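User: My instructor asked us to take a sequence, write out its structure as tokens, and then describe one feature of it. I'm not sure where to start. Here is the sequence I was given:
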Amino acid sequence: MKGTVEGIFVTGQGSAPMERVEEVTTIVGCGIEGDRYCEGTGFWTNYGDVCQVTLIEGEDLDFIEEELGIRVKDGQHRRNIITRGIRLLDLRKKRFRVGEALLEFDRSRPPCKHVQNLSEPGMTRALKNRGGICARVIEAGRIRAQDAIEVE
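Assistant: Let's start with the prediction itself. The structure tokens for your sequence are:
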């Protein structure tokens, strides 16, 4: 299995808009340097529901925009990494390299009402079964747009 990083989004504060960046640095046991959950400022931090790194399939975002008319390409999905060419649920129980970083599948990341509150009506339903996954950082490193994603 092989895919690529199509886009990267971060925000330093829970509920703040996601910002597209070209490169991030990951930290073992924390996530993405400067991102809300690594910083301890994420909306779900107080509830113990923290994902170090979140990934979502670009193909699912295409469907949501084209078929459902809901805007998701500018970070409204609230996920860190948009992938292309790889089925994320196929990574279950696996480690995979994204750029220089080694990640490990943690769990599926279903959408929540909070995502919809920050975007537009219908977002939670649009992301159902398309919400992406959470991953843990096993080896730190940089991740850049267009980096390869490969199963170890």
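For the description part of your assignment, you could build on this observation: The chain is about 15% helix and 35% strand. Try explaining in your own words what that tells you about the chain.
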